[in-house]
Amino acid sequence: MGKMKKEAEMILIKRSDLQRRVRELAEEINRDYKGKDLVLVGVLRGAVFFLTDLARNINLPLTIDFIAISRYKPGEKGVVRLVKDLEESIEGKDVLLVEDIVDTGLTLAYLYRNLQARNPASLEVCTLLNRPARRIAKISLKYVGFDIPDVFVIGYGLDYEEKFRNLSCIAIPKEKAYLE
Ligand code: IMP
Ligand code: MG
Q1: Average pLDDT score, the chain
Q2: Among 33, 106, 121, 142, which is 20 to 30 Å from 74 by CA?
């Protein structure tokens, strides 16, 4: 971790705050989904760390599935495609989409539309981070861990060029602002 820490020293949310907030979200979900047929749908790959910690703190019967879409490139906004679909049907289920961060909202808007067409009993979003400054698509977020300012972040599942996902805190890379 020594080298990684050097490149990502500015901690935005420390590990203990992440853990506390994840427990709080899980408690809300425990209350809201009691007696329901809960499916957690994680958006690969960023949401994996958050989803597993969240699921461990939920004490309801649930199932877990994953979905992945291609990243759109800047300049071709909204152009995304499913690269990995769910394994199971979500028809009649209470689906909670679990995401690492909502930025423009385009990823979730696409996924929401795609999953809604499969007739779940309910469909809501749980995101660890919300960065409203650059929102393009309007989407309703039922559970939000933290609102963050307009800075690029890494750690706890979030990557920069596929690295840093295994940092246990949310950090701001030191060298430059990666958000353009
Ligand atoms: P959106 O479609 O613009 O809302 O972007 C959401 C997706 O972009 C997330 O699922 C992340 O994978 C990625 N992303 C957005 N901001 C960051 C960041 O600050 N760090 C790492 N990944 C990010
Ligand atoms: Mg993602």
Answers
A1: 91
A2: 142
- Residue 155 Cβ inside 6 Å of ligand 1? The answer reads no
Active site residue 103: yes
Active site residue: 103, 147, 150, 159, which one?
103
CA end-to-end distance (rounded Å), the chain: 28
Give the burial class of 136: count Cβ atoms within 10 A of its Cβ; 0-12 exposed, 13-18 middle, 19 or more buried: exposed
pTM of structure: 0.92
Strand order in the sheet with 122-130: 82-84, 62-69, 38-43, 94-102, 122-130, 143-147
**What atom of ligand 1 comes closest to residue 159's alpha carbon?**
21
| Mean pLDDT across 98-121 | 96
Q: Tell me, what DSSP letter sits at residue 149?
A: -
Closest by Cα among 10, 54, 41 to 169 = 10
